[in-house]
Amino acid sequence: MKRKNSFSLFDILASAVCLAPALAGALFYSKLPYALAVHFDSQFQADSYLNKNIFLFVFPAVVTLVQFGLIAALKVKDPLGDGFFLFKLLMPVVDFTAYFIVIGNALGVLRNSGFIVCAVCSVLMLFAGAVIPYIRKTPKMIFRIFPTLKNDSVLLRTRITAGAVWVCASGILMVVSFLSSLAAPFAILMLCLVIPPVYSVAAYHSEYESNAKS
Protein backbone atom coordinates (compact mmCIF):
# COMPACT_ATOMS: atom_id res chain seq x y z
CA MET A 1 0.00 0.00 0.00
CA LYS A 2 1.34 3.43 -0.92
CA ARG A 3 2.12 5.62 2.07
CA LYS A 4 0.50 9.01 2.37
CA ASN A 5 2.95 11.78 1.52
CA SER A 6 0.81 14.92 1.78
CA PHE A 7 1.07 17.73 4.32
CA SER A 8 -0.85 17.03 7.52
CA LEU A 9 -2.87 19.59 9.47
CA PHE A 10 0.03 19.86 11.94
CA ASP A 11 2.49 20.45 9.09
CA ILE A 12 0.40 23.34 7.81
CA LEU A 13 -0.15 24.89 11.23
CA ALA A 14 3.49 24.44 12.28
CA SER A 15 4.40 26.48 9.23
CA ALA A 16 1.60 29.06 9.44
CA VAL A 17 2.40 29.77 13.09
CA CYS A 18 5.75 31.18 11.93
CA LEU A 19 3.74 34.19 10.69
CA ALA A 20 2.65 35.06 14.25
CA PRO A 21 5.53 37.58 14.68
CA ALA A 22 4.20 39.49 11.64
CA LEU A 23 0.81 39.78 13.36
CA ALA A 24 2.53 40.96 16.53
CA GLY A 25 4.45 43.50 14.46
CA ALA A 26 1.23 44.77 12.88
CA LEU A 27 -0.44 45.04 16.30
CA PHE A 28 2.39 47.04 17.87
CA TYR A 29 3.67 48.72 14.71
CA SER A 30 3.11 52.30 15.85
CA LYS A 31 4.93 51.68 19.13
CA LEU A 32 8.05 50.22 17.51
CA PRO A 33 10.99 52.36 16.35
CA TYR A 34 11.83 52.59 12.66
CA ALA A 35 15.07 50.65 13.22
CA LEU A 36 14.91 47.57 15.43
CA ALA A 37 17.90 46.28 17.36
CA VAL A 38 18.50 42.76 16.03
CA HIS A 39 21.91 41.95 17.52
CA PHE A 40 23.42 42.56 20.95
CA ASP A 41 26.93 42.41 22.42
CA SER A 42 27.99 40.54 25.54
CA GLN A 43 26.61 43.38 27.69
CA PHE A 44 23.27 43.12 25.86
CA GLN A 45 23.85 46.46 24.19
CA ALA A 46 22.44 46.79 20.67
CA ASP A 47 25.15 46.85 18.00
CA SER A 48 23.14 46.09 14.86
CA TYR A 49 19.82 47.44 13.57
CA LEU A 50 17.36 46.60 10.81
CA ASN A 51 14.42 48.32 9.15
CA LYS A 52 11.32 47.24 11.06
CA ASN A 53 9.27 46.59 7.92
CA ILE A 54 11.80 44.04 6.71
CA PHE A 55 12.22 42.41 10.09
CA LEU A 56 8.52 42.31 11.00
CA PHE A 57 7.01 41.27 7.70
CA VAL A 58 9.62 39.92 5.28
CA PHE A 59 11.53 37.63 7.64
CA PRO A 60 8.44 35.79 9.01
CA ALA A 61 7.35 35.07 5.44
CA VAL A 62 10.82 33.74 4.62
CA VAL A 63 10.88 31.59 7.77
CA THR A 64 7.45 30.19 6.87
CA LEU A 65 8.67 29.20 3.40
CA VAL A 66 11.80 27.63 4.91
CA GLN A 67 9.61 25.70 7.33
CA PHE A 68 7.48 24.36 4.48
CA GLY A 69 10.64 23.35 2.64
CA LEU A 70 12.04 21.64 5.73
CA ILE A 71 8.84 19.65 6.24
CA ALA A 72 8.76 18.70 2.56
CA ALA A 73 12.34 17.41 2.85
CA LEU A 74 11.45 15.42 5.96
CA LYS A 75 8.53 13.85 4.08
CA VAL A 76 11.01 12.26 1.72
CA LYS A 77 12.61 10.36 4.61
CA ASP A 78 9.42 9.73 6.55
CA PRO A 79 6.17 10.18 4.55
CA LEU A 80 4.00 9.91 7.67
CA GLY A 81 6.21 12.26 9.66
CA ASP A 82 6.00 10.14 12.81
CA GLY A 83 9.73 10.24 13.45
CA PHE A 84 10.24 13.97 13.00
CA PHE A 85 7.20 15.70 14.51
CA LEU A 86 9.21 17.40 17.27
CA PHE A 87 11.97 18.38 14.83
CA LYS A 88 9.32 20.28 12.86
CA LEU A 89 9.13 22.71 15.79
CA LEU A 90 12.73 23.85 15.35
CA MET A 91 11.97 26.78 13.03
CA PRO A 92 8.86 27.98 14.94
CA VAL A 93 10.75 27.95 18.26
CA VAL A 94 13.73 29.82 16.77
CA ASP A 95 11.31 32.22 15.08
CA PHE A 96 9.38 32.90 18.29
CA THR A 97 12.53 33.31 20.39
CA ALA A 98 14.13 35.82 18.03
CA TYR A 99 11.00 37.96 17.85
CA PHE A 100 10.33 37.73 21.57
CA ILE A 101 13.78 39.21 22.18
CA VAL A 102 13.74 41.88 19.45
CA ILE A 103 10.16 43.12 19.87
CA GLY A 104 10.26 42.68 23.63
CA ASN A 105 13.43 44.77 23.82
CA ALA A 106 11.94 47.49 21.59
CA LEU A 107 8.81 47.68 23.75
CA GLY A 108 10.80 47.48 26.99
CA VAL A 109 9.00 44.42 28.36
CA LEU A 110 11.81 41.84 28.39
CA ARG A 111 12.02 41.89 32.18
CA ASN A 112 8.28 42.08 32.75
CA SER A 113 6.98 38.99 34.57
CA GLY A 114 3.74 38.96 32.56
CA PHE A 115 5.67 38.94 29.29
CA ILE A 116 8.02 36.17 30.48
CA VAL A 117 5.09 33.97 31.56
CA CYS A 118 3.32 34.53 28.23
CA ALA A 119 6.48 33.78 26.22
CA VAL A 120 7.20 30.56 28.11
CA CYS A 121 3.58 29.41 27.90
CA SER A 122 3.52 30.16 24.17
CA VAL A 123 6.47 27.84 23.52
CA LEU A 124 5.08 25.15 25.84
CA MET A 125 1.72 25.27 24.02
CA LEU A 126 3.56 24.80 20.75
CA PHE A 127 5.17 21.61 22.06
CA ALA A 128 1.85 20.44 23.53
CA GLY A 129 0.23 20.86 20.13
CA ALA A 130 2.91 18.65 18.61
CA VAL A 131 2.74 15.93 21.25
CA ILE A 132 -1.02 15.57 21.88
CA PRO A 133 -1.92 13.91 18.52
CA TYR A 134 0.75 11.26 19.16
CA ILE A 135 -0.36 10.27 22.67
CA ARG A 136 -1.06 6.55 22.47
CA LYS A 137 -2.46 5.86 25.93
CA THR A 138 -5.32 7.87 27.38
CA PRO A 139 -5.91 7.78 31.18
CA LYS A 140 -9.09 5.94 32.14
CA MET A 141 -10.21 8.95 34.14
CA ILE A 142 -10.49 10.93 30.89
CA PHE A 143 -12.92 8.34 29.52
CA ARG A 144 -15.03 8.63 32.66
CA ILE A 145 -15.23 12.40 32.37
CA PHE A 146 -15.68 12.41 28.58
CA PRO A 147 -17.35 9.12 27.56
CA THR A 148 -17.56 10.28 23.93
CA LEU A 149 -13.83 9.57 23.69
CA LYS A 150 -14.42 5.83 24.13
CA ASN A 151 -15.06 5.72 20.40
CA ASP A 152 -11.65 5.17 18.77
CA SER A 153 -12.45 7.29 15.73
CA VAL A 154 -13.72 10.18 17.86
CA LEU A 155 -10.65 9.91 20.10
CA LEU A 156 -8.30 10.14 17.14
CA ARG A 157 -10.14 13.08 15.60
CA THR A 158 -10.24 14.86 18.96
CA ARG A 159 -6.48 14.39 19.46
CA ILE A 160 -5.78 15.88 16.05
CA THR A 161 -8.13 18.78 16.73
CA ALA A 162 -6.65 19.35 20.19
CA GLY A 163 -3.16 19.48 18.70
CA ALA A 164 -4.34 22.05 16.15
CA VAL A 165 -6.00 24.12 18.88
CA TRP A 166 -2.86 24.18 21.02
CA VAL A 167 -0.63 25.18 18.07
CA CYS A 168 -3.02 27.99 17.12
CA ALA A 169 -3.21 29.08 20.77
CA SER A 170 0.57 29.26 20.84
CA GLY A 171 0.57 31.69 17.92
CA ILE A 172 -2.20 33.81 19.46
CA LEU A 173 -0.39 33.99 22.80
CA MET A 174 2.82 34.95 20.99
CA VAL A 175 1.00 37.91 19.40
CA VAL A 176 -0.55 39.20 22.66
CA SER A 177 2.41 38.36 24.91
CA PHE A 178 3.83 41.88 24.50
CA LEU A 179 0.82 43.22 26.40
CA SER A 180 2.44 41.55 29.42
CA SER A 181 -0.90 40.34 30.75
CA LEU A 182 -0.81 37.46 33.23
CA ALA A 183 -4.47 36.81 32.45
CA ALA A 184 -3.80 36.08 28.76
CA PRO A 185 -2.13 32.64 29.12
CA PHE A 186 -4.79 31.44 31.55
CA ALA A 187 -7.64 32.62 29.32
CA ILE A 188 -6.11 30.94 26.27
CA LEU A 189 -5.32 27.80 28.30
CA MET A 190 -8.99 27.54 29.29
CA LEU A 191 -9.99 27.68 25.62
CA CYS A 192 -7.47 24.92 24.85
CA LEU A 193 -9.01 22.74 27.54
CA VAL A 194 -12.63 23.46 26.61
CA ILE A 195 -12.63 23.28 22.81
CA PRO A 196 -11.45 19.62 22.39
CA PRO A 197 -14.15 18.10 24.69
CA VAL A 198 -16.82 20.18 22.96
CA TYR A 199 -15.50 19.01 19.61
CA SER A 200 -15.55 15.38 20.80
CA VAL A 201 -19.28 15.63 21.46
CA ALA A 202 -19.89 17.00 17.96
CA ALA A 203 -17.60 14.34 16.46
CA TYR A 204 -19.39 11.59 18.40
CA HIS A 205 -22.81 12.67 17.11
CA SER A 206 -21.41 12.91 13.59
CA GLU A 207 -19.97 9.41 13.90
CA TYR A 208 -23.25 8.09 15.33
CA GLU A 209 -25.34 9.60 12.54
CA SER A 210 -22.92 8.27 9.92
CA ASN A 211 -23.15 4.74 11.35
CA ALA A 212 -26.94 5.00 11.55
CA LYS A 213 -27.21 5.90 7.86
CA SER A 214 -24.94 3.04 6.82
Sequence-ordered SSE layout with sheet pairings:
Blueprint: H1 9-16, H2 20-27, E1 35-40, E2 46-51, H3 52-77, H4 90-107, H5 113-131, H6 140-145, H7 152-176, H8 183-213
Antiparallel strand pairs: 1-2
Helix pairs in contact: 1-3, 1-7, 2-3, 2-7, 3-4, 4-5, 5-7, 7-8
Description:
This protein is mainly alpha-helical. Helices cover 66% and strands 6% of the residues. The chain contains 8 helices and 2 strands, in the order ααββαααααα. Helix 2 packs antiparallel against helix 3 (52-77). It is elongated, with a radius of gyration of 20 Å.
Summarize the structure.
With 214 residues, the protein is mainly α. The protein is built from 8 helices and 2 strands, in the order H-H-E-E-H-H-H-H-H-H.
Largest sheet strand order:
1-2
| Strand element count | 2
Mean pLDDT: 88
- The sequence of SSEs as H and E is HHEEHHHHHH
- Unreliable stretches (pLDDT < 50, length at least 5) are none
Q: Span from first to last CA?
A: 26 Å
Biggest β-sheet description: 2 strands, antiparallel
What's the helical proportion of residues?
A: 55-70%
Number of helices: 8
- Estimated share of beta-strand residues: 5-15%
Shape: elongated
